Amino acid sequence: MADEQLSIILVTAPSQDVAQQLAQDLVRERLAACVNVVSGVRSIYAWEGKIEQAEEVLMIIKTQSSRYTALEAFVRAHHPYETPEIVEIPAGRVTPKYLQWVMKETTSD
User: Fold this and answer.
1) Which of 12, 13, 9 is nearest to 89 (CA)?
2) What is the CATH number of the domain that holds 72?
3) How many Cβ atoms from other residues are within 10 Å of residue 22's Cβ?
4) Which residues lie closer than 8 Å to 66 by C-beta, 6 or more apart?
5) Which domain, by its residues, includes 94?
6) Which of 26, 80, 89, 98 has the most CB atoms at less than 10 Å from its CB?
7) Within 13 Å, how many C-alpha atoms sit on residue 30's CB side?
8) Are the beta carbons of 55 and 41 closer than 8 angstroms?
9) Is 67 contained in some domain?
10) Global pTM exceeds 0.85
11) pLDDT band (50, 70, 90) for residue 4
12) Which residues contact 32 (CB under 8 A, 6 or more apart)?
């Protein structure tokens, strides 16, 4: 287990329904062990030369680092945004039991 690492992936979605569906699909496909869905996020960002604002839903996705490429491809294929936010944050420290659980839940059978 020494080589196994956990990544936290941040993805925003335009609505609770979209986030919920993506979260369920990611867990079902074993691309994520857990997804926290956080409503009430206000995003302020530059887009096509303008400053935009939007209410969004933040997904905090926990997975093993080796699953990032497949997770990114899945999100790109199923996300309604032209340019979805997909940000990987490697976890520095993780309790051994939680890491073991994430690895178990995100390993393809």
Assistant:
1) 9
2) 3.30.70.120
3) 24
4) 4, 5
5) 12-105
6) 26
7) 9
8) yes
9) yes
10) yes
11) confident
12) 9, 23, 26, 61, 62, 63, 67, 71, 106
